Amino acid sequence: MGGPVKAVARRPSLADDAELAIAAATGDAGAFAELYERYVDRVFARLTRLIGPGPDREDVLQHVFLELHRALPRFRGDSAVSTFLYRITVNVAYDHLRRRVRRTADHDPAALEALIDGDATPEDRARRREELRQIFALLERIKPKKRVAFVLVAVEGLSLGEAAELIGAHADAVKQRVLHARRELVALMGRAEKASERRLS
Amino acid sequence: MSDERLDQLAAELARTRPVLDDLTRARVAAQLEAARTAPAPAPPVPRRRIAIGSAVAAALAITAWLALPASGPRVAASATPPLTELPDGHLLATVRGTSARGGVAGAVLTLFGPGWAMRNDRRIVADAETLVVDRSAGDTPLELAVRAATIRVQSATFLVESAQMVRVTVMRGEVVLGCGGEVGRRIGANELASCDPAGSRSAQPLVIAAATAASVLGATVEPPAIATAGAAKHKARIELRNPYAEPRAIDARSPYEDAAARPAGRRPPRPIDASSPYEDGAAEPRAGLDEIADREREHTLGLADTPAFSAAATKLRALPARPAPAPTASPIFADGASSRLATKLRPLPFYEFLYDLPETARHNLAYYFAYDYKVPQDVTRYADPLVRSVHAWKTTWKHTELVSVDLDDRLFVFDTRPRAKAPVAMLAGEDRELFLTCDAITDSSALGASGSERLRAIAANGHMLNEGAKYLSLAVPVGEYQPSRHAMKRLRPLFAKLDKGDRSRVHARFTSVNRQPTGG
Questions:
Q1: Within 10 A of B228 (CB to CB), how many other CB atoms are there?
Q2: How far is B240 from chain A (nearest CA, A)?
Q3: What is the DSSP letter of B1?
Q4: So what's the pLDDT on residue A87?
Q5: Domains in chain A, CATH or no CATH each
Q6: For burial by CB atoms within 10 Å, which of B175, B246, B255, B347 has the most?
């Protein structure tokens, strides 16, 4: 057996995001790699909530960082790098949702299972998996604009101002989208409940 | 109500912790790096400029061609390295993130790792994430076997992807694709076809096959130059490691190393070794059953990138070919009386169809074996009762009922199972109370000595499950459970055993249940 693999020597993470962004914009591959490493998990988590746990997530994730790489020369430091990146994330996710044919099929149970943390009991996992399946199925049925606003505000807990900054819209518009999304989702749930009652009777 | 429910669902979504696994992280990083470093596409050129440009280029080309001396080279030397013809029995292997090319009977074979290919005259056995074959001409067809798929090609360019299932995309020409034992179908240019994943799944992980093939080849022939180049790339890759790597298991504890290094022995443990140590900050894999198969596959494929695999492969190449394992060394018949019973141990025949490898190599990688008995014996005769019982159980369990009807003062248990000791049992008083109490698992020690005694008697009828001091009533109460029409047909004859008064009450209970919708 080969010896243990030593921990990979990483670039010291002392540099702040802005310094890294400037270095990456000038072609420093290491700086870009560091940015990728710092944010990839958070971007992945946000993407999962925005577009669902489908197999297309990986492509979208790659697209986000590719867009970041293209956009970095335009980064002027007016906002934090994280905000800049999340704005790209939201835009890419929105474009993806708009282009994607709306799904009717359920998500893969294994993909849903992977979203649940490890210490849940089997019963709890089953219940949570069902709830996730339900919420993703509902979100598939509303328009991407409303979906993005709803996920950012109602799920991720961002303020209307923060969500508006990421979406690139006015806070009032975001509020309207969230309200509409909520109304539609509630109506969809009501319809689903009635249909299930009819089936049972 | 729906508002609350929506909030609950949103909260559930907010609670999710999507984790990007190591493999995906590295793959995205690599794809990103490739896309980042790719030359930017040329800006669109106005149509008129294209027309003028084409005309000028054509004129220049003709002038240059006319100006060249007749004997002089008219084509610039290609920058592509010369293609090595893959000799018979040699292995072309490549690791993740690299590619390897080889020539086989007029075809150019390009593997994108991890993968391997081995030539046997006009037949190639291969398994790789992606495989491109370009054959412009050939007098006889070339056959390519990838897992359960067989592709015959005369002249075509096609792509074979085998991440999940074997998928063939033909860019030029025509190929004949056969999946498993089925008759081949023709796939023309710009067409795509795939083989059923069930067929592909039966293949063993390619890492094992590659290691085994390497071990066999290492002893009989010189390691091919291409494989050596692949190994050198592999080493360089390990030293550089992926700059995006996150904390991970620091000791792969590859079970396959044992499988390859030892001539015989017990079946290696599962690839996922729970005792593998992790770096600080690394998240241990989650134990969800659904994930195990995927993780197992990824882990196995990921072994190609570990130093342990590299070391094992080097060691394997230096080993002499291993003899076929003696029957007594089989993982199935390693010890005990069975080793004295079996002889002529051989891998099950399907291995031959999956792996076009020498007999010794197949012996080494097989997990399942056929055998003969040393002393001829009639296995069918002595196994028959067991086979019949299993068959009976498998066919009858779904047509049997074990239900209870509680009439407040008495409880009736109806049992239509073939082995029912008491098809109809009436429980009253304390027995009824005990039966109802044990609707959930109950410890009899809390019920006193008489309670335990009574429970034992009820359990003896097969209406309760007993394990140590714990009891569980098995009959499903009518009310929660609604017997189907067919179930009622089986239950109705049992009602005849009841008193007239009870019969009508029990019957009413069933029919009232049948009339009422449940869950409303």
A1: 13
A2: 9
A3: -
A4: 93
A5: 13-104 (1.10.1740.10)
A6: B175
The pLDDT value given to residue B419: 79
Q: Which of A32, A48, A157 sits opposite B16 (nearest CB)?
A: A48
Q: Which helix (H) or strand (E) holds A113?
A: helix A109-113
Note whether A135 contacts B13, CB cutoff 8 Å. yes
Predicted complex ipTM = 0.85
Measured CA to CA, the distance from residue B8 to residue B257 in angstroms comes to 49
The CA–CA distances, whole Å, from B441 to A187, B435, B466, B474 equal 42, 11, 9, 10
Pairing of strands B476-477, B402-406: parallel
> What part of B 298-337 touches A (C-beta under 8 Å)?
306-312
Cα of first residue to Cα of last residue in chain B, in angstroms, is 17
Cα gap B401→B483, rounded to integer Å: 8
A13-45 burial, b at 16+ Cβ within 10 Å, e below that, comes to eeeebeebbbbbbeeeeebbbbbbbbbbeebbb
Is any Cβ of chain A less than 8 angstroms from the Cβ of B520?
yes
Confirm or reject contact between B5 and chain A (CB < 8 A).
Answer: yes
Angstrom distance (rounded) from CA B7 to CA B2 = 9
Q: Which residue of A has its CA nearest to B293?
A: A110
Q: Do B35 and A62 touch (CB under 8 A)?
A: yes
Q: For all residues of chain A together, what is the average pLDDT?
A: 84
Q: What is the band of B204 on the pLDDT scale with cuts at 50, 70, 90? A: very low
- Global model pTM greater than 0.90: no
How is B26-75 classified by DSSP, letter by letter?
Answer: HHHHHHHHHHHHSPPPPPP--HHHHHHHHHHHHHHHHHHHHHS-TTS-SS
Q: What is the pLDDT of residue A182?
A: 94
First to last CA, chain A: 64
Tell me what pLDDT residue A104 has: 55
CATH 2.60.120.1440 domain extents, chain B: 80-322
H/E element holding B179? Answer: strand B167-179
Of A169-173, B56-60, B183-187, B446-450, minimum mean pLDDT range: B56-60
How many residues comprise chain A?
201
User: Measured between alpha carbons, how far is residue B403 from residues B4, B50, B429, B490 in Å?
Assistant: 38, 84, 19, 12
Looking at CA atoms only, how far is residue B40 from chain A in angstroms? 11
